[in-house]
TrEMBL record:
Lineage top rank: taxon: Eukaryota
Keyword Disulfide bond: yes
Identification of the protein by name: Alpha galactosidase A C-terminal domain-containing protein
A Pfam family that the UniProt record links to this protein: Melibiase_2_C
Species of origin: Cuerna arida
UniProt cross-references to SUPFAM superfamilies, sorted A to Z: (Trans)glycosidases, Glycosyl hydrolase domain
Length: 127
């Protein structure tokens, strides 16, 4: 349903960390950014999530290619979306890490660019 695509950032159902996660994943998935909160009354830290220009730019990348999960191991997922600019016919990528574990324990993740399918010979710049 359309409601499943609403961002609930700033409503009382998500923590701050969950809100950042939802915004990042919606951008990776090229989902419509439909808010379910009034920006006039939202707390500043949540408003900052919704107005993050870099995340919005990922969501609205002109190529319109939807991201996908590229890694899954022990409750840790990595999602990637090809975005502009292209460099020597290689995509740039937006990457999101998602911890689905429910034990509350931080997790270390060791994965190479090649294991994620990121193979540009010049490497990548992290922002």
């Amino acid at each position: 349903t359309m409601l499943s695509w609403l961002l609930i950032v700033g409503n009382f159902g998500l923590s701050y960390e969950q809100s950042k996660t939802q915004m990042a994943l919606w951008a990776i998935l090229a989902a419509p950014l439909l808010m379910s909160v009034d920006l006039r009354t939202i707390r500043p830290e949540y408003k900052a999530i919704l107005q993050n220009r870099k995340i919005i730019a990922v969501d609205q990348d002109p190529m319109g290619i939807q991201g996908r999960r590229i890694y899954k191991h022990k409750g840790i997922e990595i999602w990637a979306r090809p975005i502009t600019p292209l460099y020597q016919n290689y995509f740039s990528y937006a990457i999101a890490f998602l911890n689905r574990r429910t034990d509350g324990t931080p997790s270390d993740v060791a994965v190479t660019l090649a294991e994620m399918g990121l193979v540009a010979p010049g490497g990548y710049r992290i922002q």
